[in-house]
Design goal:
It is a single chain. By secondary structure, the chain is of the alpha/beta class. The chain is 57% helix and 12% strand. It has a five-stranded parallel β-sheet with strand order 2-3-1-4-5, sandwiched between helices. The mean pLDDT is 93.
Length: 208
């Protein structure tokens, strides 16, 4: 099983890329944000520590954590943000490593794709076999975010300014997937890349 990390800036189209891979290949897709949200549910490892750190005012009536209230609480305080990151990031990493182990043992899938905005910052490049950078030029990203999420140019610019610059992504990643144009071209890039891996695996299996 090939373990591939996927990262890239907001609006680059990572979800579209992973959706195609999910539908086309024998691949497990794991989104770090989804894992973090699951780990904050009642009874899960991060639930009580998050409440103890931020207070019960972040809870909804049903006892679940209100992500909007949580975001407001942590981004108003750098200290709280650091405390929450220290709770969630290690728990997410533990969960991810366990899922990778289980997938390797099962032998069902050819690929495991891990997507996270902070793959580089959290040093997942040391865990994955290969790191992909989903790239789209800024003009395309601005348009996508305006069309799909209703973001203003100012909001998009603010988000992009807080993310890694293109040069850092390119220097840290093994493969650049250009998703700026027609998605048929993107699919061709994916198929060529994953096709090479599948051919190598088939060749290795035939030899053994």
């Amino acid at each position: 099983m090939k373990l591939i990390g996927v990262t890239g800036g907001v609006g680059a189209g990572k979800s579209q890329v992973l959706g195609y891979i999910r539908d086309t290949y024998k691949a497990r897709i794991l989104l770090a944000d989804d894992a973090a949200n699951d780990l904050k549910k009642p009874g899960m490892p991060c639930y009580e520590p998050v409440i103890e750190t931020l207070g019960r005012q972040i809870l909804q009536e049903d006892g679940t954590i209100n992500n909007k209230k949580m975001a407001e609480a942590i981004f108003a305080s750098p200290e709280k943000l650091a405390q929450i990151n220290a709770i969630i990031h290690p728990a997410v990493r533990t969960y991810i490593m366990e899922q990778i182990r289980l997938e390797r043992e099962s032998g069902v899938n050819d690929f495991f794709f891990l997507e996270a905005a902070l793959l580089i910052e959290e040093h997942y490049d040391e865990v994955v076999d290969e790191l992909w950078y989903v790239y789209a030029n800024e003009q395309v990203r601005y348009k996508r975010l305006k069309d799909s999420r209703g973001y203003s140019d100012e909001k998009t610019a603010s988000i992009i300014s807080r993310q890694q610059p293109d040069a850092v992504f390119r220097s840290k990643c093994d493969f650049v997937l250009d998703n700026s144009g027609d998605f048929e071209n993107t699919k061709q890039q994916i198929d060529e890349k994953l096709g090479v891996y599948l051919c190598k695996e088939q060749t290795a299996n035939s030899i053994s």
